[in-house]
């Protein structure tokens, strides 16, 4: 059973704002918490994306790993979402990611979330609405970054 603290955190998470209370409670029942130390590579482009996660604390840098190091495109801190690749075909990571600080994640198995999306159309609509808003936000942030750095 999820704690009240975890439920409160999930309800406050911007990514889940389109999600009904019942669906947030279901997600909370199917999550695990994971601590990851700073400097650990957690995602690799092209590898199988098996989970989605929300950052409870810490920071993650997303981008592309090059021989000289990471080219950071985006940073996510507390309440940030990672993992739409676990929900959308071909279920492979589309970026690399490294923890910039010690980070705690709330993690959800991508297969289980996809199964619920298929079994409960209302949950599926809620989840796809959350994903669409997140993807639009990332595209806008990337565009702003490109304008700031190259124009």
Quick description:
The protein is of the alpha+beta class and 151 residues long. The protein has a single domain (17-130), classed as Jelly Rolls, CATH 2.60.120. It has helices spanning 4-12, 21-29, 110-119, 121-150; strands at residues 31-36, 41-43, 51-57, 60-66, 69-76, 81-82, 96-99, 103-109.
Give the topology, please:
Elements: H1 4-12, H2 21-29, E1 31-36, E2 41-43, E3 51-57, E4 60-66, E5 69-76, E6 81-82, E7 96-99, E8 103-109, H3 110-119, H4 121-150
Antiparallel strand pairs: 1-8, 2-7, 3-6, 3-8, 4-5, 4-7
Helix pairs in contact: 1-2, 3-4
Task: Supply database-style keywords.
single chain, globular, 4-stranded antiparallel sheet, about 150 residues, Jelly Rolls
Q: For the record, what CATH class applies? A: Mainly Beta
Shape field: globular
Find the structural class using helix and strand composition: alpha+beta
Distance between the termini: 51 Å
Beta-strand portion reads 25-35%
Number of domains: 1
